[in-house]
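Ticket closed. Logging final result for Cyclin-like domain-containing protein.
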Amino acid sequence: MTKGRPPVTDDDLYRHTSQFRLWSFTKDQLRTRQQEVHDAAAKKIGNQLKEHGLGDDDEIRPLTLDEELKLIRFYASKVEDITKLFQMPSQVRATAVSYFRKFYLVYSVMDYHPKNILYTCVFLASKAENHFISIEKFCGSLPRTETTQLLNLEFLILQSLSFTLAVLNGLRPLHGFFLDLQATNPDIDTSTMGSIHDKARRTIIQGFISNAPFFYTPPQIALGALYAVDPDLTEKYIRKKYEDLQDHVDHLLEIVKDCKKELLDISVPASEDGKEIDRKLHSCLNPLKYIQKRKSSHTPDRSESPVPKKLKTQE
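Final structure:
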């Protein structure tokens, strides 16, 4: 009689998805990808300036990689405000942040400003997650946003995502673990277990802007969130569930602990810091236009005497 194969796990299934194939990285791989995207954009700006003899212009300097990553995190955190404004569910929020973060692994903020990319990602996510809202209503509630701006960006974002719109996150696995935890811990009252679930769910939702989704599978993220809330219960549950595979248990616990750290790494730059980087970004997005505008503002109009300057303010 042949020995049966071990059961297929959710982790095994996830590793056959396009999300895992296209958007899963080690920490070194993610940093390398971010550096490559940043360097390509910075080089393009430098080449533009050199072509016009402006290579030594001190007012136009590409963002550093650290500044770029801070700005991406700053804007990613704004998804919460937008989804709350339109009363969108957490799944839309998760998908929108995922689209936004993935876009900036293909392009730099120095290629495309984050504001309209962010709005378009939320709009796309609402459609992908079957939470329909018209483009007119969506743009009408956002300041200085035209429907054409977002519609013109949709295909670009879809291309950057390799047209893979499905986003898997830790919320669904969390529900499964929650049911299993109740079954294996009948001594814990319902209200306590419910509190653990709700806190873990908030940890996953807040962790959408972290790097955890690039490093870990959705079940690992769910366990990481549970470990952040109640480490003793989570470790006890894992050891009991895999009691015949102690080597596997120790390895899994290390992954879960690392995942917890990533989930909790959600610091967002202060508003003033984000705005300061944003101001610097504007000179990078179209350096030649910025220089021309600066020159025109510094060049006096010789057809006018100093007196008409006062008349202008009165017009």
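Residues 161 and 261 are 27 Å apart (CA to CA). No further action required.
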